[in-house]
C-alpha cells in the first residue's frame, strides 16, 4: 500500500532532498496549514457555531465583514505571531500591516493573506477559502509597509485552502503545485496530487456575466466568441461557470483547466479591477504559472506588476495559457 505523504513530510523533503525551502519557511507553512485546519472547523460548524451572518462592521475595502472573516483573520494572526519565522503580516481585513509584537522574536518572512475569500458565499454554504502569499523581508532593521510592496515574482511560497466538500490545501514553493486533502480522522493534510498541470486549451470560461455592459471591447469580443460556440469564429462550444469565490473558481481551473476573468469595468473607471493584487492575484497567479498556465491583467503578466499600495486592485485574466494569450492579443489589437 503506498504510504500516505503528509504535508509535513512533503515540506521536509522539499527542505532536505531538494534544498528548496529553509527550515523557517517550512515552519511558517506548517503553521499556516494548522491555522487553515482551525478555520475549516469554524466554517464547517456554520449555523451550529453561531458564526454565520454579518459582523455589523466594515473592512478597509469598505465591505461588510462577516463574522467568519474576522474569526479567520484572528486565527491567522494568533497562529503566526509567536513562531519567530515572521516579521509582519498583511491582511485584506486590516488597513495597516501587523508587526510581530516585541515579546516574540522577529523572523525573515512576510505573510499576506485574504483570510476568508468569497465571503458572500458563507451564508449560502458554497465553497470559500483562505489565500496566502509569502515574501522575504528586505534586509535591514525593522519592518514597514514598504517592505511588502514587492512584485509577485518575488514570492517564496503561495497557496490557498479551499473549504468545500473537501478541505484542500494547494501550495507552491516554486517547484510546481501540490494538493493536500485534509484527513479529518488524522487531522493532517495528505498529499493527493502533485505536479498539477493546467491544460493549455479549454472550453470553459468564468466571468460574472451580469457585468457585460460594463466591460471593455476586447473582453466583450472574447466572451461573445465563446458564446457564439461552434458556429462562431472559435469553432467550438464553450461552457460557463461562475462560483463568485475566486478560490473555488481557481481550484476548478487547476483541476480541469479553464479561464477566469475579473476585468476592469466602467462602473469604477479609476479602479483597475475588483480583485486585490497582493493577496489574491499574486498568489493565484503564481500557482497558475507554476501549473503551466498564464496570469495577466488582460495585457501584462500579473507577477511583474510593481505594487504601489498594499490593498491595490488589479484586473485578472488567468488559466489555460492559449486562452489568456488570446485575451491579451485582443487587447493589443484594440
Ligand atoms: P462578484 C469574492 O468576494 C471575490 O473577491 C472573489 O472571490 C470572487 O471571484 C469575486 O469577488 C466575485 O465578485 O462581483 O461576482 O460577486
UniProtKB/TrEMBL annotation:
CDD domains listed in its UniProt record: FBPase
InterPro entries: FBPase_C_dom (IPR044015), FBPase_class-1 (IPR000146), FBPase_N (IPR033391), FBPtase (IPR028343)
Residues annotated as binding Mg(2+) 2: 114, 117, 280
The protein's annotated pathway: Carbohydrate biosynthesis
Catalyzed reactions per annotation: beta-D-fructose 1,6-bisphosphate + H2O = beta-D-fructose 6-phosphate + phosphate
Major localization class: cytoplasm
Residue span, Fructose-1-6-bisphosphatase class I N-terminal domain: 6-194
Free-text cofactor note: Binds 2 magnesium ions per subunit.
A Pfam family assignment: FBPase
Binding site for substrate: 117-120, 208, 274
Keywords: Carbohydrate metabolism, Cytoplasm, Hydrolase, Magnesium, Metal-binding
GO BP term, example: gluconeogenesis
PANTHER family (alphabetical): FRUCTOSE-1,6-BISPHOSPHATASE-RELATED (PTHR11556), SEDOHEPTULOSE-1,7-BISPHOSPHATASE, CHLOROPLASTIC (PTHR11556:SF35)
Record note on quaternary structure: Homotetramer.
Assigned protein family: Belongs to the FBPase class 1 family.
Listed name of the protein: Fructose-1,6-bisphosphatase class 1
Organism: Rhodoferax aquaticus
Gene (UniProt): fbp
Amino acid at each position: 500500500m503506498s504510504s500516505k505523504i503528509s504535508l509535513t513530510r512533503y515540506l521536509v523533503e522539499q527542505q532536505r532532498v531538494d534544498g528548496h525551502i529553509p527550515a523557517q519557511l517550512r515552519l511558517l507553512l506548517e503553521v499556516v496549514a494548522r491555522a487553515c485546519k482551525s478555520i475549516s472547523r469554524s466554517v464547517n460548524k456554520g449555523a451550529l457555531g453561531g458564526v454565520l451572518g454579518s459582523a455589523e462592521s466594515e473592512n478597509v475595502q469598505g465591505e461588510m465583514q462577516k463574522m467568519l472573516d474576522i474569526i479567520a483573520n484572528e486565527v491567522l494572526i494568533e497562529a503566526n505571531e509567536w513562531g519567530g519565522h515572521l516579521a509582519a503580516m498583511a491582511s485584506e481585513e486590516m488597513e495597516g500591516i501587523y508587526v510581530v509584537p516585541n515579546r516574540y522574536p522577529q523572523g525573515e518572512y512576510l505573510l499576506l493573506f485574504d483570510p476568508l475569500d468569497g465571503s458572500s458565499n458563507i451564508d449560502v454554504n458554497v465553497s470559500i477559502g483562505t489565500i496566502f502569499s509569502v515574501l522575504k523581508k528586505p534586509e535591514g532593521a525593522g519592518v514597514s509597509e514598504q517592505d511588502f510592496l514587492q512584485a509577485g515574482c518575488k514570492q517564496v511560497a503561495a497557496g490557498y485552502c479551499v473549504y468545500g466538500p473537501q478541505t484542500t490545501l494547494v501550495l507552491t514553493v516554486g517547484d510546481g503545485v501540490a494538493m493536500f486533502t485534509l484527513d479529518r480522522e488524522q487531522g493532517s493534510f495528505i498529499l493527493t496530487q502533485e505536479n498539477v498541470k493546467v491544460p493549455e486549451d479549454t472550453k470553459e470560461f468564468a466571468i460574472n456575466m451580469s457585468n457585460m455592459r460594463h466591460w471593455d471591447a476586447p473582453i466583450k469580443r472574447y466572451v461573445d466568441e465563446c458564446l457564439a460556440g461552434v458556429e462562431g469564429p472559435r469553432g467550438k462550444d464553450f461552457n460557463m461557470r461562475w462560483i463568485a469565490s475566486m478560490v473555488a473558481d481557481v481550484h476548478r481551473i487547476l483541476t480541469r483547466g479553464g479561464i477566469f476573468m475579473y476585468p476592469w469595468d466602467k462602473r469604477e473607471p479609476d479602479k483597475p479591477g475588483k480583485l486585490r493584487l497582493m493577496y489574491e492575484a499574486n498568489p493565484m497567479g503564481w500557482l497558475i504559472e507554476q501549473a503551466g498556465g498564464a496570469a495577466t491583467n488582460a495585457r501584462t503578466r500579473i507577477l511583474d506588476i510593481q505594487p504601489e499600495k498594499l490593498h491595490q486592485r488589479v484586473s485578472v485574466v488567468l488559466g489555460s495559457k492559449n486562452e489568456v494569450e488570446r485575451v491579451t492579443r485582443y487587447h493589443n489589437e484594440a
